């Protein structure tokens, strides 16, 4: 594997046909230290991520990796945080521009496609580097129901029943795959939230506390994407604790 | 896994094999070599203090400010390259003005911090520019209605990569480790800006390394009831009193040790 001179320039292929700079951008996601899980059912979709407050002087209210793109579409970002905010800003701008041009709200899949296309451009133009983030978008499509899309630095995006990103993404995805094959019993929104929290807890091999996790949900029963408050998260975690 | 960088550290648009961008990390090192800057968010305001290292005795005292007022209600203190600091202050002023133009109201501190952070981040994307060698502490007083006394203080710290978080107290620059330890001991929610002034002066004096850097000037600015909830340099008489009190506390502590 002769990496030496082929991995510094974005637009230069290696002899095996790989773009190393794009692959290194993926490494930035897994080395961020956070893990994120997203799950959807017929009724709702849920995003959960870790909330780490490393410094006592930090204001915990200012720390969040879950963002609103439109009132109905939300996302969770994993990877380089500065790049994350930039991409969120761009997504908000694209969504607003769509609403202005066409007169109706952008759907999650169209937004995902637009953001993924932008990511692809970064892998082909030498002037800009790919952003080191994985964006997981969610929203309720008026025709198709809850949707989850994961985007990566390569410009690839696809819809998921359940997915994960970040440090423990491999373990999380395997866990979700096993669960999905067996069949998830997700009748209410609460079931999806519990499954997501349970999966994160298993993958991180710790019991979660209310200040350590963030949850964003989209449900058919209530309009819009919203983040759960600490009290609500605490209730879910208590219930999880009792189940064990 | 080379943490030295070799070859992957020549431009901001290159990732290393472990997914790091070394140019941005090097920019942070430039910040770590500059004079300390601290910010304290207290119940009735925000205090910013900078250890301004003085290169030459011929410099006019009070010149080369590192804390800039960017709007009536907001200020930015910087650590790192002075020139980048001036540039960011100008950019912040433009952002504040543009917000007022568009929305007819003062920019909320959170939004100012977000815009500056996106600006920082933009310079980490291309090989044709370099990241800012700067950490910026953005302080502001947000008033929901027309009565400034009913406002809330805000403080954010932006790193060269563009990452920013809200803080109750923060320190950047040479003496940041020591300063942070000192700040953690303080009960910031119960302090007033006047009290915080003395604490800030004390912390800057205590982290200043007499052996390595000879002269320094203490630059103080605040947003407090006394300043009319506007960001302003602390008036000379108040600043001198605070600095004198701070020095007295340090001397007392030193005497007790002996």
Description of the molecule:
The complex is a heterodimer of chains A (244) and B (258). The mean pLDDT of chain A is 92. Chain A starts with 19 loop residues before the first helix and ends with a helix. Chain A is α+β, with helices and mostly antiparallel strands. In chain A, the strands form two sheets. A five-stranded antiparallel β-sheet of chain A has the order 8-1-2-9-10, with helices on one face. A five-stranded antiparallel β-sheet of chain A has the order 3-4-5-6-7. In chain A, helix 4 (169-182) packs across helix 5 (189-204) and helix 5 packs across helix 6 (230-243). Chain A is built from six helices and ten strands. With 258 residues, chain B is of the alpha+beta class. Chain B is built from six helices and ten strands. In chain B, the strands form two sheets. In chain B, strands 8-1-2-9-10 form a five-stranded antiparallel β-sheet. A five-stranded antiparallel β-sheet of chain B has the order 3-4-5-6-7. In chain B, strand 1 and strand 2 (45-53) form a beta hairpin. In chain B, helix 5 crosses helix 6. Chain B is globular. In chain B, 48% of the residues are buried. The model of chain B has no long low-confidence stretch (mean pLDDT 92). The A-B interface holds A 3, 7-10, 20-21, 24-31, 55-59, 61-63, 80-83, 85-86, 89, 126-130, 132 and B 7-8, 10, 12-21, 110, 114, 117-118, 120-122, 124-128, 156, 159, 161-163, 165-170, 180, 183-184.
